[in-house]
Amino acid sequence: MERLQITKTISTKKHDWLQFLKAEREEEFDVIAEKNPIIKKAVVELKRLSQSEEAQRIYEARQKAISDEKARTRTARNKAYREVVVNAIRMGLSNEQISELTGLTCFEIEKIKSSTVA
Predict the structure, then answer these.
(1) What would the pLDDT profile of 1-10 be if each residue is shown by its tens digit?
(2) Residue 6's CB: how many other CB atoms inside 10 A?
(3) Is-above-0.90 flag for pTM?
C-alpha cells in the first residue's frame, strides 16, 4: 500500500510538470501553481523572465531594496544585542544570565566581550 502511495505521488508530480510544460495561457499556469509550491516558484520565475527589460529592471531594483532593508534590520538588531550585552556585563550578570536574557549563546557573548575590551 505504501509503495502504491509513493508511486502515485511521483506520478502526480510528473503529471504536474507535464501540465506546466504544455500550458499556454496564464490561467493554466496559475491552476498548476496552486497545486504544487515548487511549480509555483517556477511560474513566478517564468513570469519574471517574460517581462520587458524595464519591468525586469524595476523588479531587480525592488529585490535589491528588500535585501538592503533586511541587511539594515540585521545590523540594527546586532547593534541592539551588543548594547544589551555590554550593559548586562556592566551590571555584573553572568554569561548564562545574559544568554537567558538575550537568547545569544555564551560563545556569542564572549565574542562581544572580547570586541568591547579590544
Answers:
(1) 554 444 455 5
(2) 9
(3) no
Q: How far apart are CA 90 and CA 73, in angstroms?
A: 26
Q: What angle do CA 56, 58, 64 make, to 5 degrees?
A: 100
Q: In a 10 Å sphere around its CB, with 0-12 CB exposed, 13-18 middle and 19+ buried, how is residue 102 labelled?
A: middle
Q: Which three cell numbers stand for residue 83?
A: 548594547
Nearest C-alpha neighbor of 94 from the set 109, 73, 74:
109
Q: How far apart are CA 84 and CA 101, in angstroms?
A: 9
CB of 41 closer than 8 Å to CB of 64: no
**For residue 47, which of 29, 22, 21 has the smallest C-alpha distance?**
29
pLDDT tens digit sequence for 37-69: 888 888 888 887 777 888 878 888 999 999 999
